[in-house]
Amino acid sequence: MSVLCEFKKGKIHDVVIKPLTKFIDERGWLAELFRTDEVAQDIVPVMAYVSMTQPGVARGPHEHAEQTDYFCFIGPSNFKVYLWDSRADSPSCGIRQTIYGGADSPLMLIVPPGVVHAYKNVGIDNGIVFNAPNRLYAGEGKRSPVDEIRHEESAGSVFLLD
Length: 162
Known about the structure:
Blueprint: E1 8-9, E2 16-19, E3 23-25, E4 28-30, E5 49-53, E6 58-63, E7 69-75, E8 78-85, E9 95-102, E10 107-111, E11 115-121, E12 127-131, E13 149-150
Parallel strand pairs: 1-9
Antiparallel strand pairs: 2-10, 3-4, 5-12, 6-11, 6-13, 7-10, 7-12, 8-9, 8-11
C-alpha cells in the first residue's frame, strides 16, 4: 500500500530500464524481450500478455503488493510512463519518474511491487505493450484476489497524469 507524500523528480530505486535492441535485416526486425539469464530469479515471469492502448488513453495509475511487472514498450506508438515510489522502506521514497518508450525508443521496464505506475499513449497510432509479470493474474486457476491497488478514481490522489 502506498505512502502518501509530496513527490519530487528523480530516479526510482529498483526500477530497471533497458533499451531494446532491434536486429534489422531484409525481412524486418527482431528484438529480444526476455532472457532468464538477464533477470533475478524472483522476478522471472510466470505469464505474459499484450495490450493495445488507443492514442490519448492512459492505463493506471495502480500498484501491486507482490507482483513485479516486466513491461516492453515496442510500438507502433509511443508512451509516456509515470512512476511514483511510495514504498516507505525505499531509499527513493517520494520520488516520481517519467520516461518515454515505444516506437521511437523501444525499452524494457521492470516495475517492482509498491511502485505506483501508469502509462499513456502519447502517439497517433494504437500502441502495443507487452507485460510478463512474476505473478499469475488472480492466482492459480484465477481463484485468488487480484494483486492490484487502483488509484485512477481516488479522490485527491497524488498520482496524477498530465
